[in-house]
Design brief:
OBG-type G domain-containing protein, P-loop_NTPase, GTP-binding, six-stranded mixed β-sheet, Rossmann fold, alpha/beta, 2 domains, two-stranded antiparallel ribbon, Four Helix Bundle (Hemerythrin (Met), subunit A)
């Protein structure tokens, strides 16, 4: 005990003291001989501890268990992390080639034993070569509940409710069947009594695995299609201000996106030419902004909307965007100003917390008198609708892509809107950091 106490005392010596090359401990004392001054040596007293529990009058070490990490919701960009999926035919052919190269264990002189050893090893190798990539797909494709709400909506609206999970379940079922067949036929091949029987059971196992993969391999091809489709989805940076163009079909949203940004959506004179979310970028004063072109909205309730319309609503619901709402009062878009007014009122009330800018497109086609469709009833008009038919919403900009009327003013207003959106994003980030702290 005294010796241990002397050692403990020596540990408390400061590193600048003279240290001895020889220590002799005896009944609680120590002696230093030939003292030397060591300039670089430092003593560190790091203590490592562990938890113990009392059991039967003795301390038993208890291993420290790490707390289970909670599943974290992914930020936007999970689709770009998806694994590369090989076609089912390529997976099987590659696995077959590797399995055929497996040789029997060296040193087996008996022909029958050598053949059944080779057959069992090849079946086991084929099973693993098929099952390993399938397991990788299942583990690396994110669960939908952990995705960002926007990407969750993209999956549901693109492939239908539940189809994403169903394809993953089919791939997992295929993996389990492959493992089951491999574990069934490899031992049978290993128990063969002759070379011929071993060869027959090897062939039987290979054909069974090939049949299963051929019948149910479509699930892998479906997963390949899902991966390619999701990976092609535009990535939205939540920290970058985003301008979202919204309006009825064929009102000129795509033309404005091409004019304002680097985005090049298709422009045609029929509705729903925008079949998804199209991204572009704007660079103003060395600052970068995002622009999204969205499918048009029709006058109907949410239950009757198609997936393209729901995609537009998903963008507005889950992404921090500023809205550039486009109106066409010329009658060229195929929808009456009255119907556009009803859609506009609904969207402005639902997403009134967004920063907003109204634009009247195709102003070169506007006439002095308002456009009135035959289906409209003038008797039920109210003052706000009459005013909307003539000049659109209050404060709206009138622009023409064809004549470039009002385009410079529009770009200036868009810049101001995006700068305001940037300040809003910064304020929210600061507020979130304060709440976390």
């Amino acid at each position: 005990m005294s010796c241990a106490f002397s050692l403990l005392e020596s540990c408390h010596l400061p590193c600048s003291r003279y240290l001895s090359t020889t220590f002799r401990f005896s009944r609680g004392w120590y002696q230093m001989q030939r003292p030397i001054k060591h300039k670089t040596l430092c003593l560190c007293r790091n203590v490592q501890t562990f938890a113990c529990e009392l059991a039967k009058a003795s301390y038993v070490p208890t291993p420290q268990t790490k707390p289970k990490s909670l599943a974290k919701v992914e930020t936007i960009g999970a689709f770009q992390k998806l694994p590369m999926v090989m076609p089912s035919v390529d997976i099987f052919q590659s696995a077959s080639r590797k399995a055929k190269r497996v040789l029997p264990t060296k040193g087996i002189a008996n022909v029958a034993k050598r053949e059944r050893n080779r057959g069992a090893k090849q079946l086991d190798a084929l099973m693993k070569e098929l099952a390993v990539p399938l397991r990788g797909y299942i583990e690396n494709f994110p669960k939908r509940i952990y995705l960002h709400p926007y990407e969750r909506s993209l999956i549901e609206l693109t492939f239908g409710a539940g189809n994403y999970e169903e394809v993953l379940k089919k791939v997992d079922a295929l993996r389990k069947k492959v493992v089951s067949v491999g574990k069934e036929h490899a031992p049978l091949c290993a128990k063969s009594l002759s070379k011929k029987e071993a060869e027959e059971r090897l062939t039987e196992g290979l054909e069974k695995l090939q049949e299963i993969f051929k019948c149910e391999g479509q699930a892998i091809d479906d997963l390949l299609y899902i991966a390619k489709t999701l990976r092609a989805m535009p990535v939205v940076d939540l920290e970058m201000p985003t301008l979202c163009l919204v309006g009825a079909p064929n009102v000129g949203k795509s033309s404005l996106v091409r004019l304002l940004s680097t985005g090049k959506p298709e422009v045609c004179n029929y509705p729903f030419t925008t079949r998804g979310i199209l991204m572009g970028h704007i660079t103003l004063d060395y600052q970068h902004f995002q622009v999204t072109d969205t499918p048009g909205l029709l006058k109907r309730c949410d239950e009757d909307r198609n997936n393209l319309e729901k995609l537009t609503l998903a963008v507005l619901s889950h992404l921090p965007t500023a809205i550039l709402y486009v109106h066409d009062l010329s009658g060229q878009c195929g929808m009456s100003p009255s119907d556009q007014f009803m859609i506009y009122k609904e969207i402005s009330e639902r997403f009134g917390n967004h920063l907003w800018l109204d634009v009247i497109s195709k102003c070169d086609l506007l006439k002095e008198s308002p456009v009135v469709f035959i289906t409209e009833d003038r008797e039920v008009d109210h003052l706000e609708l009459v005013k909307y038919r003539k000049i659109g919403p209050e404060g709206a900009l009138h622009v023409s892509v064809k004549n470039e009327d009002g385009i410079d003013k529009l770009k200036k207003k868009v810049h101001e809107l995006l700068m305001a959106q940037m300040e809003r994003i910064k304020s929210k980030r600061i507020q979130d950091n304060i709440e976390v702290a």
